[in-house]
Design goal:
3 domains; two-stranded antiparallel sheet; eight-stranded parallel β-sheet; 22 helices; TIM Barrel; alpha/beta; 10 strands; about 525 residues
Length: about 525
């Protein structure tokens, strides 16, 4: 009552006489205007629990790059089946494995073309060549079914590298990715022939000297394979036509895919070929080791293979290395097998990126390893669907939140999107829901994918701990249509920075569309 009376006296007389303190209303603050990025983040939070809306949002979101993508596993079984039918291949009904003609339906080896008229056979082959409808039982695990698919369609993918490249880049464009690093094994037959005539005594220098004479033919064959595949991609996507497929705009580089499950002489020869190719063909930007990490030879020879990489890195220090490491889980291998693969890949194998890294907390001194990865800026390529279907690891069992807390850089990748029946947009959706990632974190993952790509040139960003533009572009808005002259000159000299600038432009347009309600 006293405050009301004093307020009345103040109103009437313009001063307070004998009144206690009066609470007065502060001037209203000007409303804070949200920018498009903030509106987009708020919209994302509003829809994140609606899977259909979330997937639509993330399908439209620019994602930068897919850095962990096996070309042979990127293709959906339906495409393989169509190409095999066109080629006149046959299939063994009992194993769902493609075989060369002649076909004989009476011996349960019909033409693959029969599957286009026989729904039961069609479904059988799609399921056998992918993870579609797979349910683990006492006879077959997700791990075994996944890796067994590749041998079943191997006959057709050998003959269709260009078609596969077209499909992979078409899908990348649908996922709003602008750059792919595809793993592939080039000139494989020539390398194996070369190995047959190369003595092996475990001395890497001796092996390199013996392989040197035949390496020119290997490089020439690899170049022919890439040239042929790229021409087929351009033809298939009508890249020279009036209405080119969006996949034509996706930039592609290759990682030479070394088959770690083969004997040491073959592994070393493939590594050498990969290093040589990366030095001599700009389309090949590095190497990787593939095949099941838990396989007998992969486990037995792991340290020796890291020693091979250490030796070759010393000879070719500019060649980039990304390694599958830690794609393991308790029970898949003995406990000792979980203790050192990631650390050895980084410290002995000189890996700049790690694929999967799922067993990191089983490594010796894991927190020290995480700190080392953060300090060295070793990026981990996270493949959610692959980790769940092969290893049975996802959600709270997955180390992604641990990597984030340790400030280890991450990117989302597909691994084998065709075999896994997924795509990059779906992988982002799984990551967002499994680990409650914010829009800002997803945007960082997209930016990381280009920052840690092996594409040549200086980065747009000053450092890897943030996204502040370099001095030449400090006065420009990243992604602007007309950067100032200093920034334009910088972009002209760096392929990586141009891609990063393109991503920033796409993110700007995406967020502007969300803010405008489009």
């Amino acid at each position: 009552m006293q405050h009301r009376l004093c307020a009345f006296v103040l109103f009437a007389l313009g001063s307070l006489v004998g009144c206690g303190p009066v609470a007065t209303r502060a001037p209203a603050a000007a409303p804070v205007r949200e920018d498009a990025a903030q509106i987009t983040a708020r919209h994302f939070d509003a829809i994140r629990h609606s899977p259909p809306q979330l997937e639509a949002f993330l399908r439209a979101m620019p994602k930068g790059a897919d850095l962990h993508n096996h070309l042979s596993g990127a293709i959906y079984a339906e495409d393989y089946l169509e190409w095999a039918a066109r080629d006149g291949d046959c299939v063994e009904r009992a194993t769902s494995t493609l075989v060369a003609p002649p076909c004989d339906a009476a011996l349960d080896r019909p033409p693959v073309a029969d599957a286009l008229r026989d729904d039961a056979l069609y479904r059988q082959l799609i399921d056998a060549w992918s993870m579609r409808d797979f349910v683990a039982d006492s006879g077959t695990s997700g791990h075994d079914h996944f890796f067994d698919t590749f041998g079943k369609f191997h006959l057709v993918n050998k003959a269709h590298r260009g078609d596969m490249l077209a499909r992979a880049t078409h899908q990348a464009a649908l996922d709003h990715a602008i750059y792919l690093e595809l793993m592939d094994t080039l000139a494989d037959a020539q390398i194996r022939m070369l190995v047959e005539h190369t003595p092996w005594d475990g001395d890497f220098a001796h092996a390199q000297a013996h392989l040197h004479a035949g390496m020119a033919a290997v490089l020439a064959q690899a170049k022919t394979e890439l040239d042929t595949a790229e021409q087929r991609r351009r033809d298939e996507l009508r890249c020279a036509g009036a209405q080119p497929d969006p996949g034509c705009a996706v930039q592609v580089r290759f990682l030479y895919q070394v088959l770690r499950g083969f004997p040491a002489p073959v592994v070393f020869a493939q590594m050498l070929a990969g290093f040589e190719l990366a030095m001599n063909d700009a389309r090949v930007v590095g190497i990787n080791l593939v095949m099941p990490e838990d396989g007998y030879i992969s486990m037995r020879d792991y340290r020796e293979q890291m020693a091979m990489l250490d030796y070759l890195h010393g000879k070719y220090p500019r060649v980039h290395i990304s390694l599958h490491a830690g794609e393991l889980a308790p029970g898949l291998v003995p406990p000792d097998g979980l203790r050192f693969h990631i650390r050895a890949a980084i410290e002995r194998g000189h890996a700049q990126r790690i694929g999967h890294g799922v067993d990191v907390m089983h490594e010796d001194h894991p927190h020290e390893l995480l700190a080392e990865m953060a300090r060295r800026h070793v990026l981990v390529e996270i493949c959610p669907t692959s980790n769940r279907s092969i290893l049975g690891i996802g959600g709270d069992d997955h180390p992604l939140p641990i990597y984030l807390a340790a400030q280890v850089p991450l990117a989302i990748a597909t691994d084998d999107e065709g075999v896994s029946r997924s795509d990059l947009s779906r992988e982002f959706a799984i990551a967002a829901t499994s680990w409650n990632l914010s829009y800002g974190t997803l945007k960082t993952l997209a930016r990381n994918s280009l920052e840690y790509a092996f594409v040549p040139g200086a980065s747009l960003w000053q450092g890897r701990d943030g996204f502040e533009p370099v001095r030449a572009c400090a006065a420009a808005t990243p992604g602007a249509a007309t950067p100032d002259p200093d920034c334009a000159a910088f972009l002209a000299g760096s392929e990586k920075a141009r891609l990063q600038w393109q991503l920033e432009a796409q993110l700007h347009d995406f967020e502007a569309g969300i803010a405008a309600g489009r």
